[in-house]
């Protein structure tokens, strides 16, 4: 029997670690009092930001690359069903198995079934945002399987029984003396005299993990990209732990959000330039791994990919918000965000912190979900995130759009309107403002009250305290004393002394002016187009030159030691970078 669906299909929102347990405002209020956290974050975000600016500045075609990245992702979103099927066909033909998961629970269950088939009680893991999103580690733990994080920063978070606070640098909130304490507590064979020197800490981690790499038969990864036309998966990373997980075990299970596709292998060229420069501030990733199916006798022979929706289809249906799915998890938006720098990543509740988290989490859960409806307000709308984003996601636009949806939801309006709350102070203020600004008589009457504002001002001619909701403004800022008179009242009195209106005969003959200048605009346009073309060609030549140079001098930095360099020595009161690891593999 064929089942026929009537009406609109059901929208599945995401589940798992993408919903906050507390509003952003109240969590951030507490975090703001943690001065050590703010110092660690300030130092780390500024260091990464400077590195990024330097390497981005080397590419004369950076803006063209950003545009290309954005356009490829727009194309992917427009053709997602077709590209997913193409990926599934190619991945399967090369010996892999594709699984589809509607939400976090389904994805976790599929992974557990595969692990049980292999009779494994322990698995090794590459840093992955997708598995953090589904809460895989906790789920496996509950079902008797332990998951060992092999990325250095994730290992610190796991051993510290902590939560990540940054996509790329999950332990950004820890300084190196805190890391030393965690290692001493949790690594059984560690040298008890270990210092907080980054090289010693990295070495301790290496010893701790090595035996686990060789012992375990099942590995779990995310994926930075999936290539539809070849069924290839790709992961970029900085430490080499990923390469070990991708090659040593017999079974590899990769979690991938359905939006991670690119249409062709050639499209990777754009993202493999955008991602390392935006994330770790490197010209290329130390390790870029790609795998297309099973090769007998070489690498995992039992290959699975779990294609995960978990609210992405719902986000795709939002015409403004869908651009959040273009995200390549580079974290550049976090490193430039003044709100993130002060509040830290934990305040966002979800595994996706910072500006991208403020839009992605409510899109995945639905903005009407109370857990996440404070996130679109976690921004000053300064636009720094948009300028930093390598795929040009207009985060401020989406934030404003989601704020509108939240207001609609609270007032029982629009598609999100499933509840109605009693009007509050803000509604009263906005209702009054609307009535006043849409009626000039009312506005004029209200302006007569301006001199009364002077009574609230102090001797310094500033208003520093107001009651109720608007007191939230004066808590942090002063309002200048209002003028004694509104301009329109002043003008009414003084316009007789102002300049006289010009007689019709003195006015400019606009038609004659247009006739005189006709053709001038086209000429200017032609000239500018020619100049722009020349500039483009020059930029492309410079870019080609630079690439030649870079091929000659590859920048393969010794990563692990570099990662921990400069971390905070809290006992001396200096601050450090936190622990940087690898791209936010999703
Ligand atoms: S929104 Fe843009 S800047 Fe932020 S993590 Fe995603 S790709 Fe990077």
TrEMBL record:
GO terms in the biological process aspect are: lactate metabolic process
All copies of domain LUD, residue ranges: 84-308
Asked if the keyword Transmembrane helix belongs to this entry, the reply reads no
Q: Where is the composition biased (Basic and acidic residues)?
A: 522-533, 544-568
* The keyword Glycoprotein is assigned to this record: no
Biased region (Low complexity) positions are 570-586
* UniProt KW keywords: 4Fe-4S, Electron transport, Iron, Iron-sulfur, Metal-binding, Repeat, Transport
Task: Give all residue intervals belonging to the 4Fe-4S ferredoxin-type domain.
Answer: 324-393
Region of interest (Disordered), residue spans: 521-586
Q: What is this protein called?
A: DUF3390 domain-containing protein
Q: Which organism is it from?
A: Rothia koreensis
